[in-house]
Amino acid sequence: MPQLLPQTPIGPQNRAPRIRQTLFAVRHGLLAWALGLAFSLALLSCGEPSQPSVLLLTIDTLRADRLGSYGREQAHTPNLDALAQTGVLFENAYTPVPITLPSHTSILTGMGPGTHGVRDNGYYQAGPELETAAELFRAADYSTGAFIASFPLYSQFGLDQGFDVYGHPDNPLQENRGDILEERRGAEVVAEALQYVSRLPRQKPLFLWVHLFDPHAPYEAPEGFALPAPNDAYQAEIAYVDDCFATLKRGLQQHDKWDDTIVVVVADHGEGLSEKIEPTHAYLLYEGTMRVPLILSGPGLPQSQRVQRVVSTLDILPTLMELCDLAPPRGVEGQSLLGSMRADGEIQTLFMETLYPPLHNAWSELHAVRREGYKYIEAPRAALPNAELYNLELDPLESTNLRASEPERVRELQAILRQHVAGQKSSREVHAMEQSALELLSALGYSGEAEPGILESVDLMPHPALMLHVQERCDRLMEAIRASDWERSEELLQTVVELEPNGLAAHEMRGYLHFFRADGDAEELNLAQAAFESALKIQPRKRALWAHLAMIHGERKEYPQAIAAWKTATLAMGVTRGFELQLGRALYEAAEHAKQLERRGKLGDALHLWTSLAREFPTNSEYKAECERLRALQAPEPDSE
Fold first, then answer.
1. Which pLDDT score is estimated for 176?
2. What pLDDT does 104 receive?
3. Alpha helix locations (H) across 199-310?
4. How many angstroms separate the CA atoms of 583 and 49, rounded?
5. In angstroms, what CA-CA distances link 3 with 6, 302, 308, 322, 527?
6. What Rg, from alpha-carbon coordinates, does the chain have?
7. DSSP string covering 452-470, please?
8. Contact 558, 551 (CB under 8 A)
């Protein structure tokens, strides 16, 4: 295992002591060899691991500048700050994408989103062809365990590969709303992780990934964590996470899994906090969401070192491989951080992206490059102004756009960025899914011509920075809807419609208002269906729209349509356990309804329903058998002659 050790000068002043040491070593060499052998055997008998263990702690939505070790006064993060004192803190670490699943996929594979292909939560899955950190460590005879706090990282999205244990709860949809129960507290995750560690053999090294979600909105820290500053609930969540880390550290110490453990603390992305328009994350590529904390501590690492060089979360995997004397997989785009700790370390060019705006709102995606103190951001589908250039060394708050004053720099970085984007997995790879979804819209009997999917459209889209006020109104509208404040909901809906009359948000929000207000009312359900139909023609891959459409059909006992919509939401849009359960429920209710129709003598209607089920699921023997049985019952009696 490589060590970063101080160099001891050898000069005349050191020569005599070294000669005496050499004579002593010769005289007592045999004894030293015997003692060394005995000590090694003693270690083996005590069950000490021959390799260092690894703790990867990822903290969702944690800005770098909100930790005390990164300069935040009264941060209330003493435990994470103390870790930085025992290891290496990277001042300028960046995530390639401000979204949970693709960011974590990059951390665990050392590849950017355009290479590993995971571009958003839910819609994508880390494929089995990827080689993750867990697979590499398990191949090296490590125990591998992961303990997850939020839905975007659940096992159906592919990051469970290589883990002996992948801990998260089952997560069905909330009744009658289609919402996903998204988060569990850090204390629960840490307790589960420590219970797992307590069962492990002491002599076997461990790769442990613990994911904490608490700083993610909504900011609701547990009782007992006073706000470090007035109205700063976000910082209170961070203080709570710091306390969870302290519990995790104590537990690992109790199980003798701390002193020989390499600890990595990193965030998947930060939070905008409205400093540059964006209140949360995912839409823009400014420093608040892209610069993340990164702290490494443990065997093979220096203490109390701060690294100014720009690095990426893609560098974590190759760093761990070098520290543990393992070979990184082919295709890794990051580089070991051990080189960044030296003055002659290679200067990196970092790439960033977000496809969240087009996937969710029909707004332009963003791409960025960070190189030699500058950051260049481009919105390729947006009308002007679609380019931004910032000198982060002189302007860390990104307050002055240098696009007009430094055209040569813009052209240089634009060429680098566009070459990189051109070599990525296409953002249009979902077009086939969009087309199948649009065909289903037509098959379900919806009116109107199918429109092209948004990622296939060549038309200009709005720049997300110019549209975030629409999203802010939508968020407020959903709060009013969930509070059943219908008068306030109508007022907010009108403002959304005025801001973007023919956009996705207007149709989607109108659908939610009528859906949640319906309470069984047929006319409200009709209005909700019409609104969701219009929204799906703009964005046919948005699974929340399909889920609510499925629930409308289920309410009306239109089981073939409900099943088709649930199937689309479940299979084409990214498999989720909640949607699988809803699909299963719809299938059960459809079969029961078909049996009721038969008991009431409506054989034709029952056969039609069984036939619909068999068409959607042709391998299901029960559906096929019921169709054959009912056809036989309906067949005319043969002539007696």
1. 37
2. 98
3. 233-254, 287-290
4. 47
5. 10, 9, 21, 10, 67
6. 29
7. PPGGG--S-B--GGGTHHH
8. no
**pLDDT, position 639:** 58
Q: How far apart are CA 255 and CA 252, in angstroms?
A: 5
206-212 and 143-147 beta bridge pairing: parallel
CA angle 570, 574, 575 (to 5 degrees): 55
Whether the model clears a pTM of 0.90, i.e. scores above it, the answer is: no
Give the DSSP letter of residue 383: P
Going by the DSSP 8-state scheme, the letter that residue 568 receives in this structure is: I
Q: Convert the pLDDT of each residue in 270-284 to its tens digit.
A: 999 999 999 999 999
Residue ranges of alpha helices (H) inside 303-355 are 316-323, 337-340
416-454 per-residue burial string, b: 16 or more CB within 10 A, e: under 16: ebeebbeebeebeebeebbeebbebbeebebeeebeebb
Q: How far apart are CA 75 and CA 71, in angstroms?
A: 9
Q: What are phi and psi of 61, to 5 degrees?
A: 65, 35
Rounded distance between C-alpha atoms, residue 570 and residue 584, angstroms: 11
Burial (CB count <10 Å: 0-12, 13-18, 19+), residue 172: middle
Alpha-carbon distance of 372 to 362, in angstroms, equals 33
Cβ atoms of 208 and 55 within 8 Å: the answer is yes
C-beta atoms surrounding 305 within 10 Å: 14
DSSP 222: P
Please state whether the peptide bond connecting residue 218 to the residue before it is cis, i.e. omega within 30 degrees of 0: yes
Query: For residues 627 and 621, what is the distance between their CA atoms, to the nearest angstrom?
Result: 10
Token couple for 125:
């899955």
- pLDDT score at 443: 54
Q: Which residues contact 41 (CB under 8 A, 6 or more apart)?
A: none
Block means of pLDDT (10 residues each) for the chain, length 641 residues? 30 32 38 38 46 97 97 93 96 97 97 92 85 96 96 89 90 42 86 96 94 94 77 92 98 95 98 93 97 96 93 97 92 90 77 92 92 94 85 96 96 95 62 48 45 45 90 92 94 93 91 93 94 88 84 88 80 54 77 87 87 83 87 71 47
Cis peptide bond N-terminal to 385, omega within 30: yes
Q: Which residue, chain included where needed, has tokens 């996705």?
A: 504
Please provide residue 212's backbone torsions phi and psi, each rounded to the nearest 5 degrees. -115, 135
Q: Give the separation between CA 484 and CA 160, rounded to whole angstroms.
A: 39
Q: Residue 57 in contact with residue 264, Cβ under 8 Å? A: yes
For residues 382 and 463, give the distance between their C-alpha atoms in angstroms, rounded to a whole number: 5
Count the helix, strand and coil residues of the chain and give each as a percent rounded to the nearest 5. Answer: 50, 10, 40
**Cα dihedral sign, 602-607-610-616:** negative
Per-residue DSSP letter, 569: I
Half-sphere exposure of 51 (CA within 13 A, CB side): 19
Tokens 């492990």 locate to 200
Between β-strands 366-371 and 261-267, what pairing exists: parallel, antiparallel or unpaired?
A: unpaired
- The whole-number pLDDT of residue 156 equals 82
204 is written with which tokens?
């076997």
